[in-house]
Amino acid sequence: MNEMTDKALRLGAIGAVAALLLALMNTFTEPVIAEQKAQKLNSALTVLSGGIQPGREEMAPAPGIARRWPLGAGEGWILELDAVGYGGPMTVVASFTSKGEVMAARLMANSETVGFGKNAEDPTYMDIFVGSGQSVPVPVTKTALGDDADVVAGATVTFSGISAAIAAGSKAVQEWGGQ
Fold first, then answer.
1. d(CA 158, CA 4)
2. CB within 8 A of 52, min separation 6: which ones?
3. Which candidate, 130, 127, 152, places its Cα nearest to that of 141?
4. Is-contact 82 94, C-beta < 8 A?
5. Which helix (H) or strand (E) holds 5?
6. Spatial distance between the Cα atoms of 142 and 86, rounded to a whole number of angstroms
7. I need a surface site. Which of 2, 45, 46, 165 has the fewest CB within 10 A?
């Protein structure tokens, strides 16, 4: 066997062992990660529901909305919204009154820049959207934020993605009415 073939076989064996070990590790960690995500979502649903017991989860009710949960008897909705930020896809969960007004919102998953876009993970960041969506439009530009524009400084793409998703969620809820 020549030297090149020997090295190729060794590298192939190392790659196969590494792939096997990664697959084995994934077998153990995947359920734990899934459980942590479920706990994080349940915690967010509790906060976003405002004390109203969310109903049964419904999958993909509209484009850009992955899931929704009804709040009470026509009192509103909690929506899992798809958004796109500087770092790529983001998941936003927001609660709305039946008229489309934002009650609360949380950024659940993202790959945003530390120090800028990651600021959107802070629950107080989402306060800029609370109360908008019905008579007050959801702020989708920095100028629409007025005095709150400093909150999104340095993270315009993150803000734009989140605000577009929340605005789309508000519009969808308004179209559904008290359904």
1. 49
2. 71, 72, 75, 76
3. 152
4. no
5. helix 3-48
6. 16
7. 2
DSSP states along 25-94: HHHHHHHHHHHHHHHHHHHHHHHHTTTPPB---EEEEETTEEEEEEETTTTEEEEEEEEEETTEEEEEEE
Amino acid at position 39, single letter: Q
What's the rounded Cα separation, in Å, for the pair 151 and 122? 11
Which range, of 40-54, 91-105, 125-139, averages the lowest pLDDT?
Answer: 40-54
Task: Give the C-alpha separation, 169 to 156, whole Å.
Answer: 20
Residues 55-106: pLDDT tens digits?
888 998 889 999 999 998 888 999 999 999 888 899 999 999 999 999 999 9
Tokens representing residue 12 in the block: 């192939």
Contact 71, 77 (CB under 8 A): yes
